[in-house]
Design a protein that fits this description.
Length: 311
């Protein structure tokens, strides 16, 4: 659980709102309503609003429509066109009710409208509703990325995370290692001890791998049935070999009885692929290599680590 980003709001983190209005008086009124509960940022024109949004990535923008120069609609269009800012909720604030304008606002991706003169209770309620919806959707999103059995990231999360980590590693030009791990003779374990014991075993193994990975940037996901994958940024093959050996030792040290294994207890095998991201390699081929190394570790007797530097 430690190294999955849950995108939730920890209780001590305030939601962020950008207030955009060309009239300082309106900003002042909105500021009074929200300053206690939220972290606020102010802008008096469209360009400023976009710059602030790109910088602080707020949860919500209260966006005046009628402004000299860039209108609120222009700002909205701009934010929605940029993938980085497209997810920010936009509530338009407008001086007069106009159905055509509201339709246009919703079509541009706004989540709500507030009318001036600003009624503090209605405005606060609308903003609170948006935050509740966003929290729920973020929570659902994070649950969808967790493996429910072991509590580590699932395959879907890995598919999103791996290309990001790969990009970071190419930028930093530091080595990256991928470790594929597979519990030895796990089918036999399930057959003898039952699926409940099997699930329990997988949970323990996941926790054990997680406890060996101590750096915040190290990443673990459940790859499939009894297979796990670790991504170790800034780690060359030598470091990854050490880390994987520690995992193999730690799993053995659990002393989970497995009478149908030649070791008589649960063990794990590891295959590593390491790379200097300057070379012409894709992360896809890295996984393939780690998989082949895992196969060699299995062929060679299991409960051990094999690794290869990809170039
Ligand atoms: Mg205005």
């Amino acid at each position: 659980m430690d190294n999955i980003e849950l995108n939730q709001y920890p209780n001590d983190t305030k939601g962020k709102i950008v207030i955009v209005d060309d009239q300082p008086l309106n900003i002042k009124i909105l500021h009074q309503i929200f300053s206690e509960e939220y972290e606020l940022f102010m802008a008096t024109n469209g360009e400023q609003a976009i710059a602030i949004c790109q910088k602080v990535l707020p949860d919500l923008v209260l966006l005046d429509i009628e402004m000299p120069g860039m209108s609120g609609f222009d700002v909205c269009q701009h934010l929605k066109a940029d993938p980085e800012t497209a997810g920010i909720g936009i509530i338009f604030v407008t001086g007069h009710f106009d159905e055509v304008q509201e339709v246009k606002g919703f079509q541009l991706g706004a989540v709500d409208f507030i009318h001036k003169p600003i009624n503090p209770i209605i405005t606060a309620a609308r903003v609170k509703n948006q935050f509740t919806l966003k929290r729920q959707s973020d929570l659902l999103h994070s649950i969808a990325l967790l493996d429910s059995l072991t509590g580590v990231a699932n395959r879907r999360h890995l598919d999103q995370r791996l290309p990001e980590l790969w990009k970071q590693c190419c930028r930093s030009k530091l080595p990256l290692s991928i470790v594929m791990l597979d519990v030895d003779f796990f089918k036999r374990f399930n057959d003898r001890y039952g699926h409940q014991e099997g699930d329990h075993c997988l949970r323990l193994v996941a926790q054990t791998i997680n406890s060996v990975l101590r750096r915040p940037m190290d990443y673990i996901a459940r790859y499939g049935g009894e297979e796990f994958i670790c991504i170790l940024p800034e780690t060359p093959l030598s470091g990854a070999l050490q880390m994987a050996q520690r995992i193999v030792d730690a799993v053995r040290a659990l002393h989970i009885e497995h009478l149908d294994s030649c070791f008589k207890e649960i063990t794990i095998s590891a295959g590593i692929a390491s790379v200097q991201p300057t070379s012409d390699v894709t992360w896809f081929s890295l996984i393939e290599t780690a998989d082949q190394q895992l196969y060699h570790a299995k062929e060679n007797g299991r409960n051990q680590v094999f690794g290869l530097e990809v170039s």
